[in-house]
Design a protein that fits this description.
The chain is mainly β. It contains two helices and 13 strands, in the order E-E-E-E-E-H-E-H-E-E-E-E-E-E-E. It has helices at residues 74-78, 89-95; strands at 5-15, 20-25, 38-44, 47-58, 63-68, 84-88, 108-111, 114-118, 121-124, 129-135, 138-144, 149-153, 158-161. The strands form three sheets. A six-stranded antiparallel barrel has the order 1-2-5-4-3-6. Strands 8-7-13-12 form a four-stranded mixed β-sheet, with no helix packed on it.
Length: 172
């Protein structure tokens, strides 16, 4: 059975001489990933390799120091810097904040009640969130911010927006 994975962030730097890494995450809340034994790095496109966690320390609300098994030197750890970090769907549901923007992946995006499609990816930017969808066979990036967002319905797994006239025509 194929496992579903969710991207939570990226390994951004090596910390210290013992191979500890800095994980910049988008889980939407401060966490120590307590109880998590494995995270996944994408070695090649759609090929997830498990890495066993030896230890985790909280650096800030969005950053963790992570020690992975087998990476015991600064040089060894450097080879995984800039890799995207993934969790299994089950682990993601456990650790992600319910209001974290990345929790909207898989929700339906509705513009004034019209179903635009499933949210495939959430891209966080300083003043807005972009939701990537497949709009009639073309990739579309839909801005979600205080002017466009009407409501998020977690029970129905829907994000309701009211988009400016003409925005969708760019993608058609």
């Amino acid at each position: 059975m194929a496992e579903n994975y969710r991207n939570i962030g990226r390994l951004v730097a090596v910390h210290g001489l013992q191979g500890e890494l800095v994980l910049l995450h988008r889980l939407g809340r401060k966490t120590s990933l307590k109880g998590l034994k494995t995270l996944f790095l994408e070695e090649r496109k759609d090929e997830m390799l498990p890495w066993f966690i030896q230890g985790v320390r909280v650096k800030s609300d969005e950053e963790l120091f992570v020690k992975l098994e087998g990476l015991d030197t600064k040089e060894a750890a450097r080879r995984v810097v800039q890799k995207e970090v993934w969790l299994t769907e089950r682990d993601f549901e456990h650790f992600a904040g319910k209001s974290a923007p990345i929790s909207m992946v898989g929700f339906r995006l509705l513009d004034s009640g019209r179903d635009l499609g499933e949210i495939l990816e959430v891209i966080e930017q300083p003043h807005q969130v972009l939701c990537r969808i497949d709009l009639e066979g073309k990739e579309a990036l839909i801005p979600v911010h205080e002017q466009t967002l009407r409501k998020v319905d977690p029970r129905k797994r829907e994000v309701h927006v009211e988009l400016p006239d003409g925005l969708l025509e760019v993608y058609r």
